[in-house]
């Protein structure tokens, strides 16, 4: 089983047996833990896998803190063994027996791909990826060519809530990854889900092309040039995200400005704000009057935005960020380190 899983990973797939999605006594297992366990079970048999957090972060799109936390949990539960070898790497060994044949097969490019969903560009969540991976695994099986079952059965296999699966399915329709030619009725007729194999083949081809380009660049170019190119690609990636954020915020701002009082209201709020700052020092007795005026203006602003179908948070660009950790800046706000939401695309 290990050789098969290793071959799949080398071809850009992550294979996870059904049992990986269930903890002891049926406890729910985190999505990130199943991803790491699938990786270690493929490469960590025998002498083990020597790898650092940075490589795991890049391969699976996880943050450093998530990798560290899940590794500790898996080690504590006895699902993996680790030996520190010095530097930034450790040897991870998978001590478990060969898992059962039933598994979820996930193309790794799904963790990188950005989909346009209802006008919003974002990556799929781990739960959405697991749902589509289950359907994909059954569709590519020559005996099945589809997944036949209910939302409840999908939730049971993947150890998700039924609500999570029900939310994921419309997203996967919008991403053109699956279709449902048969819809179950009152539990007497099972639904049939089919993965869009043409879309998956395009994704596989694109991922292989990018990997070959990356390998050629690594061989042909000096390290300084490789580093410079990687930085340039990273800067372009986040610059595009910043433009997207600003474009969305500007669109909502333009919609709000259609109300004749919006700009005048904003100007009055700014003026009262300046008067309040001065009054707190120079004329404290006028502060209550100014505060009452400010409250009335803010209430008016809320009514204006409601009339225009806009919410206050939509007017600020960073609130439209795809990554909520770095707000699409590329740097974690907590510690200033590079954010794991980016994986270099050569």
Summarize, please.
By secondary structure, the chain is α+β, with helices and mostly antiparallel strands. It contains eleven helices and ten strands. Among the domains are: 101 residues, Orthogonal Bundle (Arc Repressor Mutant, subunit A); 90 residues, Arc Repressor Mutant, subunit A (Orthogonal Bundle); 49 residues.
What does this protein structure show overall?
The chain is of the alpha+beta class and 346 residues long. Among the domains are: 1-101, Winged helix-like DNA-binding domain superfamily/Winged helix DNA-binding domain (Arc Repressor Mutant, subunit A, Orthogonal Bundle); 108-197, Winged helix-like DNA-binding domain superfamily/Winged helix DNA-binding domain (Arc Repressor Mutant, subunit A, Orthogonal Bundle); 259-307. It has helices at residues 2-10, 31-43, 53-60, 64-76, 126-139, 151-158, 162-174, 197-220, 223-256, 262-282, 287-307; strands spanning 13-17, 49-52, 81-84, 89-93, 103-107, 114-117, 120-123, 147-149, 178-182, 191-195. The longest helix is centred in the last third of the chain and has 34 residues, at 223-256. The chain is globular, with a radius of gyration of 25 Å. Residues 1-10 have low confidence and may be disordered.
Distance between the termini: 32 Å
Percent helix: 40-55%
Rg result: 25 Å
CATH architecture of the domain at 1-101: Orthogonal Bundle
Main β-sheet, spatial strand arrangement: 2-4-3
Number of strand segments: 10
The helix/strand series, from N terminus to C terminus, equals HEHEHHEEEEEHEHHEEHHHH
- CATH topology of the domain at 1-101, anyone? Arc Repressor Mutant, subunit A
Computed structural class: alpha+beta
Largest sheet: 3 strands, antiparallel
In oligomeric terms, what are we looking at?
A: single chain
- Individual helix count: 11
